Amino acid sequence: MSGNRGVVYVGPGKVEVRDIDDPKFEDPRGRKIEHAVILKILATNICGSDQHMVRGRTTAPEGLVLGHEITGEVIEKGADVEMLDVGDIVSVPFNVACGRCRTCRNGDTGVCLTVNDGRAGGAYGYVDMGGWIGGQARYVMIPYADFNLLKFPDRDRARAKIRDLTMLTDILPTGFHGAVKAGVGVGSTVYVAGAGPVGLAAAASARILGAAVVMIGDYNKDRLEHARKVGFEPIDLGSHDRLGELVANVTGAPEVDSAIDAVGFEAVGHSGKEQPAAVLNQMMEITRAAGSIGIPGLYVTEDPGAVEESAKTGNLSLRLGLGWAKSQSLHTGQTPVIRYNRQLMNAILYDRLPIADIVNAQVIGLEEAPTGYETFDRGAAVKFVIDPHDAIAR
Ligand code: ZN
Ligand code: ZN
Question: CA–CA distance from 61 to each of 12, 54, 127 (Å)?
Fold first, then answer.
C-alpha cells in the first residue's frame, strides 16, 4: 500500500481529490481492531446520496472522505479475520454492521446498534453515519470483515463483470429492497418514481421479480429516454399534472399494485418547486387499495437547505389520511444489503441481470471524480464508476 488518495468534500458544491491517510486497523473511536481488512479498491461509485451532501443539503463536515459503494481486493487482514484471505475480491455492503447486536442478528444490518454513537446505522464516508472513512479512494479499511464482506467465488469472472458487480454495494440491493417491500411479484403493475440509477435498479429488480409492466416517472427527458431504451415505460411527469392519468395511458387504469420512491426528500412538484412530500403523496394516490409502497429514496432528520421551515427537521406535509384510508403499506429506510447481495451476485454472474447497461455505468479515473460529480448533478443519464487503480478495461 502506498500513496492513498481520495475524494474529499470541501464545501457546498465542491469536491477535490486529495492525498489522504493510509487506512489503519482502528475504528472511528480510535480503538485498535483485529476484525478488519484493508482493501485495494477496484471500483467505487458516485451515488445520488453523495449528491445530497455535496449540494450542501446535509450537515456533512468539510474534509469528509466520501464513498460508500466499494468493491476491492483484500491486501491485509487482522488477526481475527477467519474467512477471508489476501487476494480475495469482495463486495462491501454500504451498511457498516457489527453482526452481533440485536438488529444485525435479525438481518436488519441497515440499523446496526453498535457502529454509530449518534443513532442506529453506520455507513462509510457519510454524514452522521458513525465516522467510518469513505472509499472513493485507492485504499480503505473495512471492519467486521467476516460478517460484512461478500466474497466473489472466482477472481477472473469477478474482474470480467466488475462494472455490474460494483452495483451490489448499494443501488441494486437498494432498488431490489424497494421492489420487495412494494410487494412486486409475478404480473404486478409497478410505478417507480425517479429515473436515476436507483430508480433504474428498482425497475430492473421489479422486472426480475416478475412484474408485468414497469413505469418510471421523471421530469428529466434524457433519463426517460434511457429508461425507454432499456425496456421500461417512461412517464413524462412534465406532460400532465395528474399522474394517475399518465399511468392509465399505459395500463388502462389509474392505479398500480406497487410503487417505489427512488427520489427522496429533494422531490420536486409539478410547479417545478421543491416539495419534499410530493412523491410520497403521489404514490399514495396512484397505489391501489391494500397496495404497498417501497421507499428506498433518502429522507433526512436534518436538512439545513430545506425550502420549508418544517422540512429542516424532516417534518413533511404528508397526506397520510389517504394512505390510511386505502390500507396501504409503506416501508422506509436503508436496505440491509446483506439480505440480498448474494442472490443478486448470482443473477449477475449467470447473465440474468445486466445492471451496468441498465444504469448506463461509465468508468472514470479517480482524478476525474470531481467532473463526474458535476456531470451527474446536472442530471446525466449515467452511473459513474471510479476506477482508482486503472484496473478496469475502458
Ligand atoms: Zn449509494
Ligand atoms: Zn450490529
Answer: 10, 10, 7
Q: What total of structural domains would you count in the chain? A: 2
The amino acid that residue 272 corresponds to is G
pTM, rounded to two decimals: 0.96
Ligand nearest to the CA of 124: 1
Render 331-383 in DSSP notation, one character per residue.
EES---GGGTHHHHHHHHHTTS--HHHHTTEEEE-GGGHHHHHHHHHTT-S-E
pLDDT digits (tens, 9 = 90+) for 296-322: 999 988 888 888 898 888 899 999 999
Measured CA to CA, the distance from residue 238 to residue 219 in angstroms comes to: 6
Residue 64 shares a structural domain with residue 141: yes
394 in any annotated domain: no
Q: How far is the CA of 104 from the centre of ligand 2 (A)?
A: 4
CATH number for the domain harbouring residue 118: 3.90.180.10
CA distance 17 to 9: 9
Range of the domain at 188: 171-331
The predicted-structure confidence for 234-263, as pLDDT tens digits, reads as follows: 999 999 999 999 999 999 999 999 999 999
Does one domain contain both 94 and 159?
yes
In Å, how far are 41, 130, 194, 347 from 392, measured between CA atoms?
A: 11, 31, 29, 21
Distance 324 CA to ligand 1 centre (A): 31
Distance from Cα 300 to the centre of ligand 1, integer Å: 15
Task: Say if residue 131 is in the same domain as residue 247.
Answer: no
What residues does the ion ligand 1 have nearby, CB within 5 Å? 47, 49, 69, 170
CA of 176 to the centre of ligand 2 (A): 22
Mean pLDDT of 75-88: 98
- pLDDT, tens digit (0-9, with 9 covering 90-100), for 162-178: 999 999 999 999 999 99
In a domain, 299, yes or no: yes
Asked, for residue 16, whether it belongs to a domain, the answer is yes
Cα 44 to ligand 2 centroid, rounded to whole Å: 24
